[in-house]
Amino acid sequence: MRHAPNGDVRIAYEERGDGPPLLLVHGLGYDHHGWGPLPALLVPDFRLVLVDNRGVGESDAPEGPYTIAGLAADAVAVLDAAGIDRAHVVGVSLGGFVAQELAIAHPERVDRLVLLSTSPGGPNQYPMPAETVEMFSAYQRMEREAALRLAVKNSCGDRAVRERPDLVDEVYAYRLEPWRAQLLAGTGFDAFERIPAIAAPTLALTGGGDVVIDPRNSELLAERIPGARLEVVPDRGHLLYWEEPEIVASMIREF
Q1: Gap between the Cα atoms of 23 and 252, Å rounded
Q2: Contacts of 80 by beta carbon, 8 Å cutoff, 6+ apart
Q3: Phi/psi at 197 (5° precision)
């Protein structure tokens, strides 16, 4: 692990492989270990840069609230520290917010953009599905381990859980307690009116069974970002990259 300074905050990142640089920005409460098998599938073709967002992993955890603009500035600091002028960017969920902000505020740093299991945020997005609203309500009343396990199960598609009963345990091993400061950054994000300015070629990728972020939000992203492409993997959930890592890696590689 290396550390990039952004003011008085140190952001941890790991590099793997050679080739075109590919920045991976994770979602709420996951560090760089939370990508599952995906990095190993991508590393033969890319120079991977895996980031621990502030608040998790080996990055500093200053008091919040955080902002998506601040997390995007952290990502820029990582690219600077790694000596990378321009990179492909993959952002999942909250990391997809960061990736959008990076492409809007720092277009010169983004080559191609993959927005995975995410939305444009704000009041114009499709709202959080009822299953996850209920999960968050129950989460507040539960013991920590049970609550985190419930959050992981909710993020996995029902079909994936049926087909791979061990999947929840496998993902849970990498799930960290979500930082409220990260959550507040996500709830305050709204790029709906700004995403038409994204110039980077963009792939919006989602699982058709996502009950954390309504998959119609990927349609929204593809409609509003000029020339964007939409890919939907049927019956898969929010953790699409855990459920179908080979499919996701192939789509990223081809794009």
Answers
A1: 12
A2: 4
A3: -85, -10
Q: Within 10 Å of residue 133's Cβ, how many Cβ atoms? A: 11
CB contact set of 178 (below 8 Å; sequence gap of 6+): 28, 29, 151
Rounded-to-10 torsion of CA 43, 46, 47, 53: -80
- Which pair of structure tokens corresponds to residue 118? 């995410």
Placement of tokens 């599905």 in the chain: 129
Q: What are the tokens at 119?
A: 């939305």
**What token pair was written down for 167?**
């999947």
Q: Is 8 exposed, middle or buried (0-12, 13-18, 19+ CB in 10 A)?
A: exposed
Round to whole Å and give the CA distance between 159 and 140: 26
3 state SS of 56: coil
pLDDT tens-digit series, residues 137-179: 777 788 877 877 877 777 877 777 788 878 878 877 766 665 6
